[in-house]
Amino acid sequence: SAVHILLSITAFLTNSLILVALHKESSLHRPSKLLYRSLATTDLLVGLVAQPLYATYWMSLVQEHWSLCRYAFDAAYITGSALFLTSLMTMTAISVDRLLALLLGLRYKQIVTLKRTYIIVATIWILSLVTSLCALLDDRITFLYRLITIPLCLVISLASYTNIFRTLRYHQVQAEDPVQQQPSQLNVLNIAQYRKAVYSALWVQLALVVCFAPFFIVVTVIAHSKTHSSHLVILRGITVVLVYFNSTLNPFLYCWKISEVRQAVKQTIRQALCYRIMSPTNVSSGGSHTKSFHELLCSPSLVGGLQQQLSICFVAVDILLSITAFFGNSLILVSLCKESSLHPPSKLLYRCLATTDLLVGVITQPHMALHWMSASQEHWSLCRYARDAVDITGYVFILVSLMTMTAISVDRLLALLLGMRYKQIVTLKRMYIIVTTFWVFNLVASLSGFFDHRVTYLYSSLVISFCLVISLASYTKIFCTLRYHQAQVGDQQQPSQTNALNMVRFRKAVYSALWVQLALVVCYAPICTVSIVIAYTKKYSLLLVVTRKVAFILLFFNSTLNPFLYCWKISEVRQAVKQTIKEALC
């Protein structure tokens, strides 16, 4: 599960970067660029949908949540099948596109148009999705479709590249022969550039074949095996990891083999580090004044056209989430005060997390509602005040939540590794110091945005990256140690320090923390994606404002969701909440 979470994050981030870079890149032929964008989209969805579902399948399997396990497996199977078929057919379309560029010459741009490519891409997506969904009715339909599509795509790709290299070889012989002086259609092509494009596509195609081949070999062996051993299950899991690794690998191949994409990615990263979000559509007549998207959120030029009904809906949702976050997290805090079986330092971390969610409901969401009300009523000074309050408090609470979740993952790792020494080293006093440091550092960094917003941006970028890496490393180490301990118990070896722990209870605590961490990542990912799009878009629209707002709603929904996760996954908290509610009703 930890490996799938890591690959999910890297696939999501790298393919998002590729899509932004391809959006900015203009030298590539537009139909060819559309095919690469479709391929990057499938890889992005693998990281955003398929891999989290597969990680959920493994976690529910270990915890013996069989209904969730079956749902997660079916969902992962359907999405994985659809995205794989889409990737394979898109790669085949790219190989045919390269062949047509060679054979058609000047007629290539007349025949291979953007409209026709859109139709082909849409057909690929629809066919792959429909046939994958057919697995719910009869798996043989999906199997038969794959049995026809996979060999057909491989044969077409092989034939296309064979024809390409034979034609290039023939052209090279013609060019070297002084007798052959007649011009051909190939002379209209920049052959050197064309060769690079062909080799780029071929590398991506080979990577797909190499990553997927072991999986199909293992699946074939399992299908024809009379006995299913645990080694085959583990081997299948490893090959699935390799399959999903392809979605992380492809962006690096694009940057390595396609110079236009590499330059666009470099430019995108430079702009991200400088954080210059400027709009070319808001230049004054003198050409010297520009407004950022942040400033335009409180100006009639961008939000003035927003319908009153939509603003009221946004305000109503903010108020609803504010109320639920307040009551839900208040109940959790009261219950945690009563709960005594949890280790005090661990309980302090959950109290800190519930406090940030409570403050989101008490401070940030009401100010967000105030921002939309003042914008709809065109009270721009009040709008700017509310916007700044949301920015500062949002930064503080989001970063504190993320750092607290990282501290929880490290706390669980220390509980496993230290054994009996855990309670001596991880004390309540030390934990108070750590939590206080989180709040002070993040508050200072957020307030620094008043002087230079790049300071806050750089700080948050570093913190988010470090927190994700540390959390991932912690959970990976935890699961590796647990597996080693399980093997020790199975072999009846000498007891180790981990025997001092109640392993069943420890596993539950780890999975509880992991579920909360996954919920945070899922709820925060859309706003990060929208922020990247805003940073590099050339023209701001009302649709972008609305999309950003919807992403913020999902972000704030995390503060309402967490109390339910605590009650669902932490039995001690669930019992304390029940007792608190009973006492309140009596």
Automatic annotation (TrEMBL):
Keyword presence, Transmembrane helix: yes
Listed name of the protein: G-protein coupled receptors family 1 profile domain-containing protein
Organism: Pocillopora meandrina
Primary localization: membrane
Record-linked CDD domains: 7tm_classA_rhodopsin-like
UniProt keyword terms in alphabetical order: Cell membrane, G-protein coupled receptor, Glycoprotein, Membrane, Receptor, Transducer, Transmembrane, Transmembrane helix
Keyword Ligase: no
Pfam families the UniProt entry points to: 7tm_1
GO molecular function, a single term: G protein-coupled receptor activity
Compartmental location: Cell membrane
Regions that span the bilayer: 6-22, 34-55, 75-96, 117-137, 143-164, 202-223, 309-336, 392-419, 431-451, 457-475, 513-537, 549-568
Gene Ontology CC annotations of this record: plasma membrane
Membrane topology: Multi-pass membrane protein
Every G-protein coupled receptors family 1 profile domain range: 14-254, 328-566
Classification lineage: Eukaryota, Metazoa, Cnidaria, Anthozoa, Hexacorallia
